[in-house]
TrEMBL record:
Top-rank taxon, per record: Bacteria
Keywords, comma-separated and alphabetical: Oxidoreductase
Organism: Nocardia bovistercoris
GO molecular-function terms, A-Z: flavin adenine dinucleotide binding; monooxygenase activity
Gene3D superfamilies for this protein: FAD/NAD(P)-binding domain (3.50.50.60)
Name of the molecule in the record: MSMEG_0569 family flavin-dependent oxidoreductase
């Protein structure tokens, strides 16, 4: 059986980042990727996708964004090329098209790994496969009329790829809100079932809100010090867009332009979509979060004595006159439904006891209670930026140090 000191599972930006540190330390390792390096950026995003964090925040170990638009937002293709370019800078030992089917603890220490290319044994394992594995589809989706095309947000590519007609988008996290915007800009009639996602302004008082929050140290706060602690990992991301140089996503404005908004979708009954009357509450809550962030920025500007332009606060441009609780799909001409209600994890192949009752890995900064087993690239692994380009480099450096110490312990034993 082939033996490696470290096996990294996943060849995206997280797996490549820890590989960079292992390579720099001269630690024997291999990166196993079930498809090709960074393929999720090519295959798992829609055509008009852009990052929602500015390019200057994109940094991997030994590699930062060096393009001509640091305050802009890379497109899907640009991100894919950027990550692929990173791999070219240090030639990581990646084996593409190798899928892991099982990881178990080996007798006497280390791990046995079953793959489509044969078995391996290693001393330490880094799981860098992200936290979004299986698209979530509600059970009542099976009650949709058979002539309606239904797909998850991970499968959406463009308005042109959908059949003619109106589209129902379910969910207003980052993907749902941006897909609704994409369809709206393409002239499609959009019906949007809102959720409880918060929103954030793109710009405030002369700067991107991300820049203000970065300077405030907001993105460096460990999850244990966040309100709600580890429960923060379950929070929905704020919706905003990097499209067109970056702007707010204001669902109220969309409604004033003809988009149809509803509360939370809860069922399909007799060809009709059923909604809870939560629309106005959801819109108000999202606006309150955005305004609360502005309050924090105002306070920071005052404390630091920064000269910044003043800006009038947001005023709602639309309010629902009533709360619709049903939508006749045929009468509305709905030809497609896009489910944007999240993902669930799938670690069935990782047969090591490091999971809680909900199937989430238990760890501290990616270090588990099982010696030699680590996670990297998960949302809120340590801070807000852990699942984004903003803090992967820092998380990878931390794990690189821990893996090196683990290697020393193994050698001493």
């Amino acid at each position: 059986m082939e033996h490696r000191e470290v096996v990294v599972i996943g060849g995206g930006q997280a797996g490549l980042s820890v590989s960079w540190h292992l390579t720099a330390r001269g630690i024997d390792h291999v990166v196993l990727e079930r498809d090709t390096v960074a393929h999720e950026w090519r295959d798992g995003r829609w055509d008009n996708f852009t990052l929602v964090t500015p390019n200057w925040q994109c940094a991997l170990p030994g590699y930062s964004y060096a393009g001509g638009d640091p305050d802009g937002f890379m497109t899907r293709a640009e991100v894919y090329d950027w990550v692929r370019g990173y791999a070219d800078t240090f030639d990581p030992p990646v084996r593409e098209h190798v899928e892991v089917s099982a990881v178990t603890q080996a007798p006497g220490g280390g791990f046995d790994i079953e793959t489509t290319a044969g078995p391996l044994r290693c001393d330490q394992v880094v799981v860098a496969v992200g936290g979004y594995h299986i698209p979530t589809i509600p059970r009542f989706a099976e009650k949709l009329p058979p002539d309606i095309v239904a797909l998850h947000s991970a499968e959406y590519r463009s308005a042109a790829a959908l059949p003619d007609g109106a589209v129902l988008v379910v969910g207003t996290g980052q993907s749902g809100a941006q897909i609704a915007e994409d369809l709206h800009l393409e002239g499609r009639t959009v019906h949007l079932a809102t959720g409880n996602a918060p929103r954030v302004a793109r710009f405030y008082r002369g700067r991107d809100c991300v820049a203000w929050l970065h300077d405030m140290g907001h993105y460096d706060i460990p999850i244990q010090q966040q309100p709600g602690g580890l429960g923060k990992r379950e929070n929905t991301n704020h919706y905003v867009t990097g499209r067109g140089g970056g702007r707010d996503i204001d669902l109220r404005r969309f409604a004033s332009e003809g988009m149809h908004l509803y509360g939370r979708m809860v069922d399909v009954d007799g060809g009709a979509a059923i909604f809870d009357p939560t629309l106005e509450r959801s819109l108000d809550a999202a606006d309150a979060v955005a305004e609360g962030i502005k309050n924090s920025i105002d306070a920071y500007i005052d404390r630091a004595g920064i000269t910044a332009p003043t800006e009038a606060r947001y005023r709602p441009v639309w309010r629902p006159e009533r709360e619709p609780t049903s939508l006749d799909l045929a009468a509305a001409g709905i030809s497609a439904v896009i489910w944007s209600v999240g993902f669930r994890t799938d670690y069935r192949w990782l047969r090591v006891g490091v999971f809680d009752g909900a199937g989430h890995p238990c760890h501290n900064r990616g270090v588990t209670g099982v010696a030699g087993l680590y996670f990297l690239g998960l949302p809120w692994l340590h801070t807000w930026g852990s699942g984004r380009f903003a803090a992967i480099a820092r998380d990878a450096e931390y794990l690189g140090e821990r893996i090196a110490l683990g290697a020393m312990d193994i050698a001493a034993a």
